Amino acid sequence: MSLAQILFYLMAFIAIGSAVFVAGTKNLVRSIFMFFITLFALAGLYVLALADFVAITQIVIYVGGILVLILFAFMLSGKETLNAIGEQKSKFININKLPAMLLAGLFLIVLVNMILKVDANNLEWVKKSIVRNNMILPNSSMTEGIGINLMTQYLLPFEAISVLLMIALIGSAHLSRKGKGA
Amino acid sequence: MNFYITYFIIAIGLFGFSALFALFGVYAERKVSAFIQDRLGPTETGKYGSLQTFADILKMLQKELITPAAADKILFILAPGIIFVAVYLGFAALPWGPGLVPANLNLGLYYIFAIISIETLGILMAGWGSNNKYSILGAMRSAAQIISYEIPAGFAIISVVMIAQTLNLQTISAQQGILSTEVVKFSGFWDVTHIGGFFAWNVFRAPHLLIVFVIYFIASLAESNRAPFDIPEAESELVAGFHTEYTGLRFALVFLAEYSMMFLVSMVAVILFLGAWNTPLPNIGPVHLANWTTNAVWGIVWVTIKTLTLVGIQMWIRWTLPRFRVDQLMTLCWKVLTPLAFACMLISGIWRLWLM
Questions:
Q1: Is there a single domain that holds both residue B147 and residue B211?
Q2: Cβ distance of A68 and B150 shorter than 8 Å
Q3: What is the residue range of B37's domain?
Q4: Which of B1, B3, B72, B118 to mutate to test the interface with A (most CBs of A within 10 A)?
Q5: Cβ–Cβ of B117/A71 closer than 8 Å?
Q6: How far is B312 from chain A (nearest CA, A)?
Q7: Residue A33 is nearest to which of B75, B106, B114, comparing CB atoms?
Q8: Which of A126-130, B194-198, B269-273 has the highest mean pLDDT?
Q9: Do B155 and B286 sit in the same domain of this protein?
Q10: B125 and B250 housed in the same domain
Q11: Burial of A17 (0-12, 13-18, 19+ CB in 10 A)
């Protein structure tokens, strides 16, 4: 096995193991800190796939932003509430969990189906890209490519997302403004 | 396999450097504060008290590691490690001289920006794990402050990147001196590509970059939890903030992280604005001062001098200004620095498109 393969299996194992812990544990705060490890392992996998920009963006947005926000919500809600959630008695198989189990099962079928059907070593579009020399090498810089594509080919989705985010910002500012007459 | 050994040596060397810097920094901080408050500071241990911090660290190594009974033990023990490692990882991408950089990343600047944000998570972990109201209040204040000040800092960084057109810290450094491969202009009108010196530094490349530098410096003070932005560990209100419950080696690790963070943010400021490892001496006619003082050895000397100067200014500010109240802190960030940084970013774009 090459070093890249060893690293891939190591990080995939860490990602899956910590994700199982996140889903399984009853200590919510610890599960959030485990989620941090999952995200880091995922970032490592992105780096292995030569998507270093995506990897760092994932750390900035998820670790620096979203995880900290979730932790804030936990810390503002107090320890008693969290303990009450942790002490809830529930069996692993439960009628209340039916929708979740259905979704998970369906998703598993989709994934298994895809893995069985796809022939990852000779994909049509990968071969075409190699012929046209349209690929990323380990020493090439990705940022320029992402910037140019965002401003040309994917301008409409990019602008649509920015409008959506703007709406969310204005909405949250309006909701948090409970002063006079509102 | 040889280069793996080199990597390990560099990593250990950087760790040793940050530890030594923390020892030196604590001593300097005490002496500076003593000078500002008209005291003497440490005088007993060693000549001029110079062995005081070594004595302190020896004492800390021997102390008992106390874990509070009600603490979340795993989080409590892991937190100082995460806080320090987050800062230490940032050192990997910092260039020290021409060709001297531990990891020459294409996205070096973005990487450091990402790594710094992990420290917040470690602080929240310490605050929650301690299970103490002062710790958790300190941790929440710290997280709120760091997240808020990341925005003006980010805009300030983007303003420089728009002018430099790269995220590679080594390329940004090379652009600010005689090794530049493109034309460098002082304030946009005077070609100083072959003159070099402080004329070619990014602060003087465009007039608004001076304001950007000040914005970044203020934001970096807040990100490393230094006074006047030290409400997370306001000793008159919160005992010691998020590290109230830590003793011995764990406490030392938290302090090591704080001083490494000071060095890290100062060095990023030096690389982005103050010419990185480039010499401040320009070529004057036949006297080629800049050519003589630009190489790997001089690079380390210049970058260290500049960074230590900025760290010194951080200490000076800490012992001069009173602490901000939380509303003043947020007002400064959201109503002053963020709009100003945003305006500077717009000017950078216009400058790059029409004036360069």
A1: yes
A2: no
A3: 1-62
A4: B118
A5: no
A6: 29
A7: B75
A8: B269-273
A9: yes
A10: yes
A11: middle
- CA B54 to CA B56: how far, in whole Å? 5
| DSSP letters for B68-133 | -TTS-HHHHHHHHHHHHHHHHHHGGG---BTTB-S---TTHHHHHHHHHHHHHHHHHHHHHHHT-H
DSSP-derived 3-state class of residue B180: coil
Same domain for B105 and B228, yes or no, is yes
Q: Work out the number of other CB atoms within 10 angstroms of the CB of residue A53.
A: 20
pLDDT, residue A179, reads 66
Q: How far is B175 from chain A (nearest CA, A)?
A: 18
Residue A181 Ramachandran class (φ > 0 left, ψ -120 to 50 alpha, else beta): left
Among chain B residues, CA nearest to A68:
B121
pLDDT tens for residues B99-145? 778 777 788 888 888 888 888 888 888 888 888 888 888 888 888 88
Give the ipTM: 0.78
When scoring A6, A21, A31, A75 by the number of chain B Cβ atoms within 10 A, the one with the most, hence best to mutate, is: A75
Closest Cα in chain A, distance from residue B32 (Å)? 34
In terms of Cα–Cα distance, which of B145, B116, B153 is closest to B233?
A: B145
pLDDT at site A110: 94
Return the pLDDT at B53: 84
Count: domains in chain B: 2
The answer to whether residues B198 and B208 touch, using CB atoms and an 8 Å cutoff, is: no
Q: CA-CA distance, B122 to B221, in Å (whole number)? A: 18
**What residue of A is the nearest CA neighbor of B113?**
A60
For residue A141, list chain B residues with Cβ-Cβ distance below 8 A.
106, 168
B95, HSE (Cβ side, Cα atoms, 13 Å): 30
Q: Same structural domain for residues B122 and B34?
A: no
Which of A30, A36, A74 is facing B121, going by the closest CB pair? Answer: A36
DSSP H or E run through B191: strand B190-191
**Nearest alpha-carbon partner for B148 in B267, B259, B266, B231:** B231
Mutate to test the interface with A, among B3, B89, B120 (most CBs of A within 10 A): B120
